Amino acid sequence: MNSDDLKVPTISPPRAGTTSGPPGSQSPRPPLWFGGLRRPSLWLAAALWVAANCWVAFTGGNTLPFDWPARADRSVAGHLLDVNLALVQVLLLMGLVYLITRRRTPPDVAARAPDRALALRETLLLLGYGVLGLAGGFLLARVFGWHPFGLHLAGTIFGTHAHLEPAEVLTWAGYNLLVYAILPLIYFRRRYSTWALGLRSSD
Asked: Over the stretch 14-65, which tens digit does the pLDDT of each residue have?
C-alpha cells in the first residue's frame, strides 16, 4: 500500500441551498445551535463550570495556587472575571461565525476521515507526539538556561516576571513552528489531500 491509497478523494459537498430532491420535498432543518442546546452534555458542562467557579471563589483565599505575572495585582474574583469574560468573547466569536455561515451546507467532515481503526491509531500517535514535543522543548530550553518551552511563551500568562531575551523568544517560536506545524504538515500531507485535512474549503 502506498500513500496514494490513503488519500481521500476530493469530492465536493453540494452547494449551499441545494437539495437532492424536488423543491419542497424536504422540511427545513432546525438551526445547528438548536440541537446543541438540547444536549444534556452541554448543560452538564455548564453546571460543572459554574460549580468550579463557585468553589474557587469561596475556597481560593486571597491568591490562586500559581504565579500569574500578567495579573499579579488582581484578586481571586478578578481572575475569575477575566477568565469568564475571555470565554464570553469566544462564545461571541462562535456566534458571529454561525451568523456568517448559517446558510451554508455543513461539510461532511466524517467523509474525509480514514477508517475508525486508522483514525484512532493516528490520534493516539499524535497525542504521544505532542507529549514528546513538550518534553523536547523543556530539555532544549534547559540546555540554554531558559524557561521551559511550552505552547505559550513563558510570562505571557504565567511562569515568570522577568523580561525574556530575544534569543529565547525567537528559539521558542522557531521550535514551536517546526514541531507543531511544519513536521505534522509534512507527515500528513504525504498521506491525505488538502481537502481531507480541512486545509482547502469545499465552498
From this structure: 444 444 444 444 556 666 666 667 788 888 988 999 998 888 878 766 666 6
Is there a contact between 191 and 3 (Cβ–Cβ < 8 Å)?
yes
| 61 burial type by CB count under 10 A (0-12 exposed, 13-18 middle, 19+ buried) | exposed
Any idea where the domains of the chain sit in the sequence?
Answer: 28-106, 109-203
Instruction: Extract the residue ranges of the chain whose pLDDT is less than 70.
Output: 1-36, 60-73, 158-159
State the virtual CA torsion across 141, 146, 148, 154 in degrees, nearest 10: -140
Q: How far apart are CA 13 and CA 106, in angstroms?
A: 9
Cell of residue 163, nine digits: 523580561
- Reduced to 3 states, what is the DSSP secondary structure of residue 191? coil
Report how far residue 84's alpha carbon sits from residue 165's, in angstroms, rounded to the nearest whole number. Answer: 32
Q: In Å, what is the CA distance from 134 to each residue of 127, 128, 131, 140, 159?
A: 11, 10, 5, 10, 15
Note the residue count of the chain.
203
- The grid coordinates of residue 198 equal 480541512
